């Protein structure tokens, strides 16, 4: 332990003692010991020390001398040694090209490099733009090709549809034509089937086919027959007309006669009959001169009348 | 002694070929005046300065607003080749900005450029074709090129020009023919392109097939392609080693096979096996186009029979990460399974 520390310790102890005394005066101390016991002050530190009021002190002092001025340095002149040599710097010899040229070179190189960098940047920018353009152009081309492919597909499909539609129309038209043809043919067949019999019938009816004998009979015999019949009938009619006129005459006469006083009716009636019968042959006799075939007519007349 | 300042004087003009630019807003008007000066050197220096300025879109806008394009049009027919070359370069850089493109179309620079197609200097022609190529990427630009009647001269030039310029011409043609195809067909483009299909350079082959793709996306184009028997050549290109050529040739087939004659000639030329190999490859870019072409072929009865055996190939395509390929594969399966 240095003297300073020892001193400090001693001071501290002094203070502690003083404090303790004051404290003992202020506070009540420890109580009195119990019987049979004794309170003893003990030091519990590592090193025991002698506690006393008075500390052993030793004084010592020292002192430096006064500062003296520094004495002046002695003149040092080294001994002359070696050879004497002289040199002279000529004009321009201090010029070191490398050092001098450095700033100029820096400026030159700097400017050149700057210019080169600018150009390289420009080119790089151009190259970037170009690659950008190429990428875009590729995409655009791909899309464009897709568009054209779809257009082409669409066109093909449309053309195909158009062709098929035209074909279908053609087919329908042909079908219709064929159906019409068939219908016309069937109709014509049916029409013509009747044609031949009807033609023949017509011809037959218009008398183009004739049996010559029949025709002969018809054309010659019948007219003659008919004319003869007509004549006979005319004769008959004539006879009847004559008879009618006779009867009328007779009746008128009789009327006249009866308008006068009438003779007996009975004689008249039978007289009428024979007169009628007389008149008839008379009439026939009278008509004889006109018509020869009168008896024949009479005979014909009677069978006709009988009929 | 060394000093950090290099010299007591300010540095001289580093590039004597360029005109000195005025500060700020005054730069372009000053260049405009210099362009109109009668002295050749001034004009050249002004053009060189303008070339560098035109890379900035704001300067392009300003330049067009100041009316530079009319001066440039007059300079296009200058006798000095440097002037012409630089003018075409300025115009081509302008055409890479959209404001520049619009300005060029509106001012009718396209018709002024037709005269330069036969220029003796290679670079002028190359720049001219580059301008056409960049212009044609816009629909209005393509319309402008078509209206200027440039298609037939371009098709003729395809036969005679250098390879690089041919690539540019093919690019221009592909964008223009997307719009209208009759002029090109009249100029016999299909025959010329058929020769180019066997060119050794990959870029020319792939671009030529791209032009054929654009031609066959129109109806008259399809008829012309079938008539000229291009389809067998396209089928042989399917086995080309370069993927871009494969992609483009499958695309051209995709369009050409929409017509029935195309389909029958493809079936006759045994189109299905190479297309199936392209579809089966998982990482091929030509997958989408190949699936679409096979869909077209599956609409024929013989095609459907053959493809029914390979149905599972399409089934695997449905799991492709790209959505377009999935859709195309589903459509293909639907078409294959269709029964009349």
Automatic annotation (TrEMBL), chain A:
What domain of life does the native source organism fall in? Eukaryota
InterPro entries for the chain: Radial_spoke_3
Q: Does the keyword Lipoprotein apply?
A: no
Instruction: Give the residues annotated as coiled coil.
Output: 140-189
Grouped into one coarse class, the protein's main location is cytoplasm
Q: Could you tell me which Pfam families the record lists for this protein?
A: Radial_spoke_3
Looking at the record, which segments are called Disordered? 257-307
Biased amino acid composition, Low complexity: 272-281
Subcellular localization, as worded in the UniProt entry: Cytoplasm, Cytoskeleton, Flagellum axoneme
Keywords per UniProt: Cell projection, Cilium, Coiled coil, Cytoplasm, Cytoskeleton, Flagellum, Phosphoprotein
Record's GO cellular component terms: cilium
What is the similarity comment for this entry? Belongs to the flagellar radial spoke RSP3 family.
Xref: PANTHER family = FLAGELLAR RADIAL SPOKE PROTEIN 3, RADIAL SPOKE HEAD PROTEIN 3 HOMOLOG
**Which protein are we looking at?**
RSPH3 protein
Q: Where does this protein come from, organism-wise?
A: Leptocoma aspasia
Give the gene symbol: Rsph3
From TrEMBL, chain B:
Membrane topology field: Peripheral membrane protein
Q: Name one GO cellular component term.
A: membrane coat
UniProt GO BP: intracellular protein transport; vesicle-mediated transport
Q: Which domain of life is it from?
A: Eukaryota
Residues annotated as domain Clathrin/coatomer adaptor adaptin-like N-terminal: 31-336
| InterPro entries in the cross-refs | ARM-like, ARM-type_fold, Clathrin/coatomer_adapt-like_N, RSP14
Where is this protein primarily located?
A: membrane
Give its localization. Answer: Endomembrane system
This chain's protein is named RSP14 protein
Recorded source organism is Leptocoma aspasia
Which gene underlies this protein?
Rsph14
């Amino acid at each position: 332990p240095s003297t300073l520390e020892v001193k400090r310790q001693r001071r501290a102890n002094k203070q502690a003692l003083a404090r303790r005394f004051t404290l003992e005066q202020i506070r009540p101390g420890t109580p009195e010991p119990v019987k049979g016991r004794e309170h003893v002050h003990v030091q519990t530190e590592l090193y025991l020390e002698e506690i006393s009021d008075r500390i052993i002190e030793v004084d010592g002092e020292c002192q430096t001398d006064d500062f003296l001025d520094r004495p002046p340095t002695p003149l040092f002149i080294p001994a002359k040694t070696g050879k004497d040599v002289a040199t002279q710097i000529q004009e321009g010899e201090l010029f070191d090209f490398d050092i001098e040229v450095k700033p100029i070179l820096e400026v030159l190189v700097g400017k050149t490099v700057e210019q080169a960098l600018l150009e390289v940047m420009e080119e790089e920018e151009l190259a970037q733009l170009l690659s950008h353009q190429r990428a875009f152009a590729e995409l655009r081309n791909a899309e464009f090709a897709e568009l054209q492919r779809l257009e082409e597909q669409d066109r093909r499909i449309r053309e195909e549809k158009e062709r098929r539609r035209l074909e279908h129309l053609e087919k329908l038209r042909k079908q219709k034509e064929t159906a019409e043809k068939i219908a016309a043919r069937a109709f014509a067949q049916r029409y013509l089937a009747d044609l031949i019999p009807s033609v023949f019938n017509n011809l037959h009816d218009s008398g183009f086919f004739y049996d010559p004998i029949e025709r002969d009979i018809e054309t010659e015999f019948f007219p003659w027959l008919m004319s003869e019949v007509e004549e006979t009938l005319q004769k008959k009619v004539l006879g009847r007309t004559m008879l009618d006129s006779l009867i009328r005459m007779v009746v008128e006469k009789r009327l006249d006669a009866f308008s006068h006083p009438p003779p007996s009716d009975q004689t008249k009636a039978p007289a009428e009959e024979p007169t009628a019968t007389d008149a008839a042959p008379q009439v026939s006799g009278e008509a004889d001169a006109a018509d020869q075939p009168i008896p024949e007519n009479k005979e014909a007349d009677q069978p006709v009348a009988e009929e | 002694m060394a000093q950090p300042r290099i010299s007591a004087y300010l540095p001289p003009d580093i590039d004597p070929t360029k005109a000195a630019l005025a500060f700020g807003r005054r730069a372009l008007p000053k260049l405009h005046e210099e362009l109109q000066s009668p002295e050749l050197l001034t004009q050249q220096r002004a053009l060189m300065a303008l070339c560098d300025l035109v890379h900035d879109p704001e300067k392009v806008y300003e330049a067009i607003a100041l009316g530079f394009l009319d001066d440039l049009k007059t300079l296009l027919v200058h006798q000095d080749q440097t002037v012409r070359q630089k003018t075409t370069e300025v115009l081509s850089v302008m055409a890479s900005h959209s404001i520049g493109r619009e300005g060029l179309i509106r001012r009718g620079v396209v018709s002024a450029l037709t005269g330069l197609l036969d220029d003796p200097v290679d670079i002028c022609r190359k720049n001219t074709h580059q301008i056409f190529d960049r212009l044609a990427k816009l629909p209005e630009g393509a319309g402008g090129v078509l209206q200027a009647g440039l298609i037939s001269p371009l098709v003729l030039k395809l036969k005679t020009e250098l390879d690089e310029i041919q690539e540019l011409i093919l690019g221009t043609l592909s964008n223009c023919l997307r719009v209208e195809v009759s002029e090109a067909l009249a100029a016999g483009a299909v025959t010329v392109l058929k020769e180019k299909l066997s060119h050794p350079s990959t870029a020319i082959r792939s671009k030529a097939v791209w032009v054929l793709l654009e031609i066959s996306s129109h109806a008259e184009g399809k008829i012309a392609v079938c008539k000229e028997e291009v389809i067998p050549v396209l089928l042989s290109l399917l086995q080309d080693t370069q993927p871009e050529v494969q992609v483009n040739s499958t695309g051209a087939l995709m369009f050409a096979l929409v017509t029935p004659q195309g389909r029958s000639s493809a079936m006759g030329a045994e189109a299905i096996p190479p297309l199936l190999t392209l579809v089966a490859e998982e990482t091929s870019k030509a997958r989408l186009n190949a699936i679409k072409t096979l869909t077209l072929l599956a609409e024929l009865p013989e095609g459907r029979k053959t493809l029914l055996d390979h149905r599972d190939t399409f089934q695997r395509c449905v799991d492709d990460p790209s959505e377009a390929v999935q859709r195309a594969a589903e459509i293909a399966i639907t078409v294959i399974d269709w029964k009349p």
